[in-house]
Amino acid sequence: MNKSFATTFVCCFVLSGAVFGQEPAGDSGAATYTADVPAVDSIEPNWAPLGKEAEVVIRGRAFSTESVPQVLIGGKPAPWVNVVSDSEIRTMIPRKDRLGWESIQVINPDNQSIPVEQGFHHGPIPSGWLDRTGMRLGSFADRFAMGGSTMYAILLLSVVGLAWFIHCLFYLRPARLMDESSSRQILALLSNGDFGEAQKACERDKSLFARVVLAGVRRSGESPQKITEAIEAAGSRESAHLFQKVSYLSNIGVISPMLGLFGTVLGMVMVFDEFANQDGPHQVLLAAGISKALYTTVFGLTVGIPAMCAYYFLRGKVMRLVTDLEEQAEEVTRSIARRS
Predict the structure, then answer these.
(1) Which terminus of the chain has fewer CB atoms gathered within 10 Å of its CB, N or C?
(2) How many independent structural domains does the chain possess?
């Protein structure tokens, strides 16, 4: 009876191990190898002078010791790799002549890894705000280059948008479009019925207000309705011209994100094409490729959002100018009709 009970107990224990997915002891190493993802904890030294190579020690965990893992420095394979243990690797950082950080990534033969950003710095690590600004500019230049040719089109739009915004700020000055002294002089001449001098003053002035008044003065002697129609038509033309001038910023605000999205989609197509015919998991490398492709969308939004803000700001200025112009046009219409 006791022997039968012991045999039954042993059989149940073996079966329970099979049910719960326990593997033989000989395969435990393989299970651990695929489950553990290599990660970089520290790099010593973590910087080198510009123009010089540097031998570094990478410390972390779960580095493959059965076959040599791949070490990527800024996305490119290291010149040589020496695996000391599963937590230490020695490699060489190639020379670089530009200041900035560079990522270091360890990839096991099963393509498992955790990317580490800003792992190694070329040149002294920045300490003051001036050094940090230079580092950010260098980092921006690297990310700009990752975006490809689409980034240059967006950069061109950003330069054109900034230049056009400055132009509109100078063009939409109230003193330029409706000079107060000239307006008072023209209104005084119209009040006195001196239409000939008022017409000469408008032709000399060439401002927006003068052009609108000139359309009404040329109709002096006709019915008040004809004068009103001429002034309203001139005012509508000038208003449409102002709105069209500022609408170019709206176009830039719409086109820039579209270009960024186009660059991202194009980059993702290239990434998927590159990995479609390769074997094995490539989750990390695929994520890195998509991350690079998204830089164009970020840059497009960075240009498009300020362009739209500038457009709405200038449109508000145009609406205020048009409102003031309508008030002045009503007074001009009354003065001409009263003296005609």
Answers:
(1) N
(2) 2
Helix axes 224-276, 208-217, angle to 10 degrees: 140
Sheet of 81-85, strand order = 39-44, 54-61, 88-93, 81-85
Q: How far apart are CA 299 and CA 144, in angstroms?
A: 8
53: containing domain? 32-139
Per-residue pLDDT tens over the stretch 94-146: 888 776 777 788 888 776 676 664 577 776 665 555 445 544 545 566 667 77
Does residue 324 fall inside a structural domain?
yes
157: in domain: no
3-state helix, strand, coil in the chain (%, to 5): 65, 15, 25
151 closest CA partner among 263, 304, 250, 269: 263
Pairwise CA distance, residues 234 & 63, whole Å: 77
End position of a domain, from candidates 139, 165, 195: 139
Q: How far apart are CA 75 and CA 53, in angstroms?
A: 17
Beta carbons of 234 and 215 less than 8 angstroms apart: yes
- Residue segments in the chain with a per-residue pLDDT below the cut of 70: 1-36, 99, 111-112, 114-118, 123-143, 274, 276-289, 337-340
Is 322 in a helix, a strand, or coil? helix
Instruction: Quick: pLDDT tens for 237-266.
Output: 888 888 999 999 999 999 999 999 998 888
Q: What is the pLDDT of residue 160?
A: 95
